[in-house]
Amino acid sequence: MRRKTLPVYALVCLLAAACSSNLSKNTHQETAIGLDTTVIQPVVITDSVRHDTDDPAIWINPANPAQSLIIGTDKDRDGALYVFDLNGKIQADKVVRNLKRPNNVDIAYGLPLGGKPVDIAVVTEREANKIRLFSLPDLKPVDGGGIEVFSGETQQAPMGIALYTRPSDHAIFAVVGRKDGPKESYLWQYRLEDNGAGQVKATVVRKFGAYSGRKEIESIAVDNELGYVYYSDEQIGVRKYYASPDSSGTELALFARTGFQEDHEGISIYKTGPQTGYLLVSDQGANQFHFFPREGTAGKPHDHPRLKVVRVAAQSSDGSDVTSVPLGPRFPKGLFVAMSEGKVFHLYRWEDLLGKDK
Q: Which alpha helices (DSSP H) does 171-233 contain, by range?
């Protein structure tokens, strides 16, 4: 059953377009390539988790964006999915505990469950070989105890996850990566649907994606509007494919191959318009993020040259997320969240990262 009011995903897109109209006037050619030695400081550092932060996701509150939440994993065999407000304070009544090494988390809006649209957070539970799904903002389980992934494979151990909402019908899909696997069809894509009892079921719809075999694939990001999926083949670069399960499995690009000190990690997408913006990729060993053009270059949508490199206070950052939606007076042009050593997440104002290019 479709809601009669404006869907959350549509509200988010409208807010993003409105808040970024000034940014979209800048061309990527105006951005100097290179490293600014300035270390950008966060405006908020979250409360500490118990074990080891790994990956964050931003849930945007459609009624009051300033009341949005940060969902973040605490990676351990006795791990948890933490919830923070925009002041970095743990929302204890929402924290999900007793997860077996939760790795990455992502969010989607408006999955039909029990006859109504439900926002969901989906996290990989590595040592259980499952994905776990929780409703938002209350963080209640909607997965019947978890859904096994990579069934029948000798290599399971799910790590990375990204959710794709298909614009044509708003169907939601999970793209899941793992600790190790074959050099072809490394990623599996699942359609998420109501099982008829108000819980989520997942059906494999595609297996795709090359893997170098060098290290592992953890960070995955999806651009819903442009229809692409990106993932970090650590120590190799960022790979790009179509996101739709009905699309070709041909690799569209392999970029970000040089200039990284160690692992390619968190990928996040900042949107300055319907088709423009930035791809941010964590250079984990150097405590910095590389910026690439979301739209590619003129006539070459799969050409993603490096635009700039930004150093941040976050140490050894693994996962990250970003939004261009204004989240109250503290984050008027959006929010960037990065995992940091010290069992915390760092919250940055977008304009601080963009610097002179804002």
A: none
d(CA 21, CA 2): 30
Before 137, cis peptide (omega within 30)?
yes
Torsion over CA: 309, 315, 320, 321 (sign): negative
Q: Which residues contact 69 (CB under 8 A, 6 or more apart)?
A: 58, 59, 61, 83, 84, 85, 86, 91, 94, 136, 137
Residue ranges of domains in the chain, CATH in brackets: 8-357 (2.120.10.30)
Amino acid at position 126, single letter: R
Distance of CA 14 to the CA centre of its chain: 20
| In contact, 219 and 191? CB cutoff 8 Å | no
| Greatest Cα pair distance in the chain | 55
* DSSP letter, residue 126: G
Sheet holding 320-323, edge to edge: 44-45, 344-349, 335-340, 320-323
Which has the closest alpha carbon to 309: 264, 270, 358, 260?
260
Give the strands of the sheet with 116-125, arranged side by side.
102-113, 116-125, 130-136, 147-148
pTM comes to 0.90
- Three-state DSSP at 122 gives strand
The two three-digit tokens of residue 64, written as one number: 């009051």
Per residue of the chain (358 residues), give pLDDT as tens: 333 333 444 444 444 444 343 333 333 333 344 556 899 999 999 999 999 999 999 999 999 999 999 999 999 999 999 999 999 999 999 999 999 999 999 999 999 999 999 999 999 999 999 999 999 999 999 999 999 999 999 999 999 999 999 999 999 999 999 999 999 999 999 999 999 999 999 999 999 999 999 988 999 999 999 999 999 999 999 999 999 999 989 999 999 999 998 889 999 999 999 999 999 999 998 999 999 999 999 999 999 999 999 999 999 999 999 999 999 999 999 999 999 999 999 999 999 999 866 5
